[in-house]
Amino acid sequence: MSWGYTAKPEAFMEKRSSLYGKVFKTHVFGRATIVSTDAEVSKSVLQNDGRIFVPYYPKSLTMLMGDPSILLINGAPHRKLHALLSSFFKSPSLKAQVARDMEHHLHLSMPSWSQRCSPLRIQDQAKSMAFEILVRALMSVGSGKDMNFLRHEFREFIAGLMSLPFNLPGTRLRKSLQAKKRIMKLVRQIIEEKRKKRKQGLNPMDDVIDVLINDSQQDAQEEGNEIEMKDDLSMANTVIDMMIPGEDSVPVLITLALKFLTDNPTALQQMREENLKLKRLKAQAGEKLCWTDYMSLSFTQNVITETLRIGNIINAVMRKALKDVEIKGYLIPKGWCVLTSFRAVHLDEENFSNPYQFNPWRWKDKEAGGFTFTPFGGGYRLCPGIELSRLEAAVFLHHFVTSFSWVAEEDSIVNFPTVRMKCGLPLTLTPLPSYPSFPSQ
C-alpha cells in the first residue's frame, strides 16, 4: 500500500489499468485482490452486496469495529439498521437542529478568528465543530467533560483502524481497542439512563439512541433482559460507527472545499456572490436562514459535489466474493477480495473531462448521481448521512466565505490512511466589510 502515501496514489491504478485493463489482479494487505477501476463493474459489486459480495476489510479494522458494526453486518439486520439511520438523518427536524448547531458554533468562534494574528488551521476547527454537532445528534451529549472525553478517546480509537493487526501491549491496535472499550462504557451508561427515563414514562425521540431504543423495545418486551443487554451492546457499537463522519468525512470535506476554492479565485468569487446575495435577501426580509436556504445554493452545492469528486474522502470499498462470479467478462473467483476504486473512476477522463481540474461548473444542470460518481459509496450501503454532510459543509462555507478573505500557507493533501491536509490548511484571515455574519444576541 506504499502507493497510498504518494501525492498521486491513482498512478498505481493508472499504470496497471494501462497494462492489464480496468479490472486487474494484485495483492492488497497481503490478500489476493481484484481491483476494479471500471464504473460498471463497481456498480455490479455494490448492487450485489449481501448476495454475492460481503464486506471484507483489513483485520485491524474489523477487530476495532466489531461484529455488530454497520460496516460489517449483512442481510436483513443491515437493511433494518440502515433504514432506521437513513430515516433519522434525513428528517427535517434533525437538519434544522444541525444547521442551528453549526451556526451557534460559528457564532461563538468567528469573532476570535477575525482577531487572530496567527494562521487558523481550518481542518482542526472544522473537526471540533462537526464532532460536537454529530455527537449531540447521536446521543444528546453537549459541551463539557463527556464531550472532551469522547473527543480524546475517539481519536485514540480511529488511529488504529489501519494499523498492524497485532493485539499486544503497547501496539497501536491495543491502544485503540482500549480506547473503544472506554467509549463503549460511557455510551452504554447513556443508553441505560435513557432506558430508565422511558420506564418512568418519558419517551423522547431526540437522537439516534432514542430511535434505536424505540426500535428494540418490542423485542426486549418479548424476549426479556437478555435481548436488551445484547441490543445495548449493538447500539453502543452503532453510535461509535456513526461518530466517524464527525471526525473525518465532514471536516475534510469543508477543508478541501476551501483549499480548492483558494486555488480557484473565480469559483471562490462566484460562490461568495451567491452566498452574499442570499444573506442580503434574508436580511431585507428580516428572516433568519433555515436549512433549506443553505441547500438551495446551487453553485455552493456544485462546489461541494466537485470537492467530493476530486477529493475522494472515501476512495474505495472492499468486498469478498461468496462464489465465482463473472462481471462484464471478468471472472472474480470465490473467496477473492474485490476493491472498487471510487477515486480511479472519479479521475478517469472517460467519465469526466479534465478530471484533475477543479471545475464546479461541470455540475451545472447535471445530476450528481450514477455509478461514475460514488463519493458516499452505493447500493445497499450508501452512506445514510449524505444530505446531512452536504448541509453541514454548506452552512460552514456560507458563513466563512461571506465573512473572510484569506491567504493560505503552503500545504498538501495526504491520501493514506485517510484523506486530510498535511498541515490542516493554515489560513491568515481578513474580515470582509460585511462581517459579522450573525446579528448580535
From TrEMBL:
Q: Which cofactor does it need?
A: heme
Claim: Transmembrane is one of the keywords in the record: yes
Looking up InterPro entries in the UniProt record yields: Cyt_P450 (IPR001128), Cyt_P450_CS (IPR017972), Cyt_P450_E_grp-I (IPR002401), Cyt_P450_sf (IPR036396)
Q: Where does the record place it?
A: Membrane
Q: Which UniProt keywords apply?
A: Heme, Iron, Membrane, Metal-binding, Monooxygenase, Oxidoreductase, Transmembrane, Transmembrane helix
* Pfam families given in the database record: p450
Main location as per UniProt: membrane
Q: Record's Gene Ontology CC terms? A: membrane
Pathway field: Hormone biosynthesis; Steroid biosynthesis; Plant hormone biosynthesis; brassinosteroid biosynthesis
**Membrane topology term:** Single-pass membrane protein
Binding of heme occurs at: 383
Q: Which GO terms describe its biological process?
A: brassinosteroid biosynthetic process; brassinosteroid homeostasis; leaf development; petal development; stamen development
GO molecular function terms noted in the UniProt entry:
heme binding; iron ion binding; oxidoreductase activity, acting on paired donors, with incorporation or reduction of molecular oxygen, NAD(P)H as one donor, and incorporation of one atom of oxygen
Family named by the database record: Belongs to the cytochrome P450 family.
What is this protein's record name?
Cytochrome P450
Q: Which organism is it from?
A: Amborella trichopoda
